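Risk register update: the risk that structure generation would not scale has been downgraded. Supporting records follow, first protein first.
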Amino acid sequence: MDYFTVQWVTLVVGFAGHVLLDRSPMRRTASRVLELAALWMLVGMGVFNLWGGFGHIGPTSDEVAASIGYTQSMFQWELGWADMALGALFVALARRRGAFSPPAPTPVRDAVAV
């Protein structure tokens, strides 16, 4: 339970500090606060997924398995690699966050949408 408490406290405190110390010209606007919230969730969850993945496949994997009520198995190995893949993806997506803006409207797309 401590793992999840540390995770959420870190995300909330980091997000609040980022909002308070933000130097962007758009600071404290609704869109900027939502952007920072999404950024902290994406990167924060990515980092904690990496941390959890290393716990499942690293030298402490026996302790991690015992703490969640399982024995060490290939399922834990798979879970560790899946956690690390998602963590790497989340951190990488944060680097490209401006590349996912909606496309410009076109007559063909607008006609199909109606």
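Supporting record for the second protein:
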Amino acid sequence: MIFGALLGRRKIQRTSHDSTIETKAKISLRGAKGKGLTYANLVEKLAEIGVSGNERNLNNKISRGGFTAAFLIHALRQLDSSRFIRDV
């Protein structure tokens, strides 16, 4: 964990705000489908900047919310999504 190294591997208490942000992150990435983009399109856009993966892996990451902050930022940039940042 990136944050674990920065914080000396101390456990951080999760808050309800954490869950809210995680939910908004998932909704933002799922929202790409509503804009006419498919996960296959997002995989292609991510590949353009060197982020590897496939449609199935992307679907799994988004479904379970198991992605890093770096992945989220890359995906939102490729989707040109500034709405998420304003909402958080």
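The chain has one domain: 15-87. On this basis the risk owner (M.S.) recommends closing the item.
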